Amino acid sequence: MYRQGDILILPVSEEAVPQSVRELRPAPRDGRGRMVLALGEATGHAHALSAPGSLLRAPDPLAPDHLHLPSGGRLVHEEHAAITLPRGWYRVIRQREYVPGTVRVVAD
Predict the structure, then answer these.
(1) How many whole angstroms separate alpha carbon 10 and alpha carbon 91?
(2) How far apart are CA 60 and CA 77, in angstroms?
(3) Among candidate residues 74, 76, 98, the one with its CA nearest the CA of residue 85
(4) Digit-coded pLDDT (tens) for 22-52
(5) CB under 8 Å to 27, separation ≥6 — which residues?
(6) Phi-psi category of 80—alpha, beta or left, where left has phi over 0 and alpha has psi -120 to 50?
(7) Are the CB atoms for 80 and 94 separated by under 8 Å?
(8) The pTM is what?
(9) DSSP 4
(10) pLDDT of residue 51
């Protein structure tokens, strides 16, 4: 299990990744070629990886994302220590907060 700020990254076995997730189109990379797990609204900082692989994002913003890293990668953020992730599959969960009347994901 890995945590970087408001992002929780859980390793999962390949068998545990639902077929519906595997059928999702990978999220586009940013202008720098990075997979951005979360972007800070206030600072513009990003939890991002520059590595081979794919970020599979469900249409529901509260659903966990899935990350596939066939050769591992390094998760970086301007305000946190970098984290080296071994190759494999991961479930990416964003911290949530309750705002009267709704639940939303936390943004740095």
Answers:
(1) 5
(2) 24
(3) 74
(4) 999 999 999 999 999 988 766 678 999 999 9
(5) 35, 36, 54, 55, 56, 57, 65
(6) beta
(7) no
(8) 0.85
(9) E
(10) 95
